[in-house]
Amino acid sequence: MTQFWTTITLILVLSTIGLTYEIAAGRVLAPFFGTWLVIWSFVIATIPT
To answer: pTM for the whole thing?
Structure first.
C-alpha cells in the first residue's frame, strides 16, 4: 500500500515540475513570438513530460 502512495506522490510532483517548465518556456518565448496557440502547442510538444 505504501508503494501505491509513493507512486501517486511521485507522479504528482513530476507532473507539477513538467507543467512549471512548460509555463516558464511559454513566458520566455512570449516576447519574441507572442502568445499564439501555435507557440503553446510547440512548447507542450517539445518539452518531455
So the answer is: 0.72
